[in-house]
């Protein structure tokens, strides 16, 4: 893909690119926004360097790509605009980012993408690692791919947040409220990306609690295989933050992991999350040259056509 308004430098064969020629503190033209969106679809994670972006500019940039998510149910947020999530560590305050995950997959319509800005970084450590779930899927063997086509999995806010919430005063009560607000959610194990049409593996260690169609031990065993596949270093890039860096990732086809390798040093990141759509899996059978039957799996069994 060639770009006129921006320039891109690929970071690995599977995902990631630096984007230059753009100032995120300024309003963007329609053409530039369209190119950033195309670049996100092409590279799955974009990194903008040497930016100086205020909170309101952060929100404005994110809003070019869709509706902004309501305040995060657990992370702190900014008082003047709760759509700005503050992810702050002085020591291991919570576990959330320190597991591989895609953002808020316990929601019915999990996030399209997230935009993260480094506000305070440790002298060393605190990198974020990103992995391509297209590559994780593409490199599975054919029999496993075939089996995954008919499977759905539960995603649970409790699985992700119970430990850190229970360490806080009133944590048990908050957890119960969150479980009422976000009941167990079922998504297909394979997700068709709604814009690229590509298939991505869509289970993550942090929120996926079990595969619905399998027995408990089968589900555990298969999830172990799939998490191993998702976390292979082969499909990853690692970003070492500088102040002024902005990362924009596509939650529909990537996972990420915040390395907690900086002891009690202070690290502060601000995140804005863009609302996405309900995951679905669209399978195209090619039984013979003249047959092409699309089947669409929704979140609870056979679902809506898209
Ligand atoms: C996140 O998990 O969204 C934040 C990642 C990070 O703090 O590096």
SS class: alpha+beta
CATH fold-level label: Double-stranded beta-helix
Principal-axes geometry comes out as globular
Physical arrangement of strands within the biggest beta sheet: 1-2-3-14-6-16-5-4
- CATH level 1 class label: Alpha Beta
Please indicate the percent range of residues in DSSP E strands (runs of 2 or more): 25-35%
How many strands appear in the DSSP assignment? 18
User: What oligomeric state best describes the polypeptide chains here?
Assistant: single chain
CATH superfamily placement = Clavaminate synthase-like
Q: So how many helices?
A: 7
Mean pLDDT: 90
Query: Radius of gyration, rounded?
Result: 19 Å
Give the terminus-to-terminus CA distance: 26 Å
SSE sequence, one letter per element: EEHEHEEEEHHEHHEEEEHEEEEEE
Helix content: 10-25%
Structurally, the number of domains stands at 1
Hetero ligands: succinic acid
Q: Report the sheet with the most strands, covering strand number, pairing sense and barrel closure.
A: 8 strands, mixed
CATH architecture: 4-Layer Sandwich
Give an account of the 3D structure.
By secondary structure, the chain is an alpha+beta fold. It has a single domain, classed as Double-stranded beta-helix (4-Layer Sandwich). It is built from 7 helices and 18 strands. The strands form 5 sheets. An 8-stranded mixed beta sheet has the order 1-2-3-14-6-16-5-4. α5 packs antiparallel against α6. The longest helix has 15 residues. The protein starts with 6 loop residues before the first strand and ends in a 9-residue tail after the last strand. Succinic acid (SIN) binds next to β6, β15 and β16.
């Amino acid at each position: 893909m060639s770009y006129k308004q921006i320039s891109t430098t690929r970071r690995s064969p599977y995902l990631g690119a630096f984007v230059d020629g753009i100032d995120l503190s300024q309003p963007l033209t329609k053409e530039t926004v369209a190119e950033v969106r195309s670049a996100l679809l092409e590279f799955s994670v974009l990194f903008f360097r040497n930016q100086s972006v205020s909170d309101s500019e952060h929100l404005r940039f994110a809003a070019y790509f869709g509706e902004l998510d309501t305040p995060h149910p657990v992370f702190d947020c900014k008082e003047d605009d709760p759509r700005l999530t503050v992810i702050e560590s002085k020591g291991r305050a919570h576990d959330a980012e320190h597991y591989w995950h895609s953002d808020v997959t316990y929601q019915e319509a999990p996030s399209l993408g997230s935009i993260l800005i480094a506000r305070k970084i440790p002298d060393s450590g605190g990198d974020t690692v990103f992995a391509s779930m297209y590559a994780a899927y593409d490199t599975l063997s054919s029999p496993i791919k075939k089996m995954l086509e008919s499977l759905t999995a539960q995603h649970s806010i409790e699985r992700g947040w119970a430990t850190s919430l229970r360490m806080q005063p009133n944590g048990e009560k908050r957890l119960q409220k969150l479980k009422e607000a976000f009941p167990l959610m079922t998504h297909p194990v394979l997700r068709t990306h709604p814009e690229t049409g590509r298939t991505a593996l869509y289970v993550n260690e942090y929120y996926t609690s079990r595969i619905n169609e399998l027995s408990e031990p089968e589900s555990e065993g298969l999830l172990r295989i799939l998490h191993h596949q998702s976390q292979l270093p082969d499909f990853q890039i690692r970003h070492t933050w500088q102040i002024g860096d902005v990362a924009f990732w596509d939650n529909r086809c990537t996972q990420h992991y915040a390395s907690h390798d900086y002891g009690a040093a202070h690290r502060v990141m601000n995140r804005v999350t863009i609302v996405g759509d309900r995951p679905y899996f669209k399978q195209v059978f090619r039984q013979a040259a003249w047959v092409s039957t699309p089947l669409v799996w929704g979140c609870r069994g056979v679902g809506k056509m898209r």
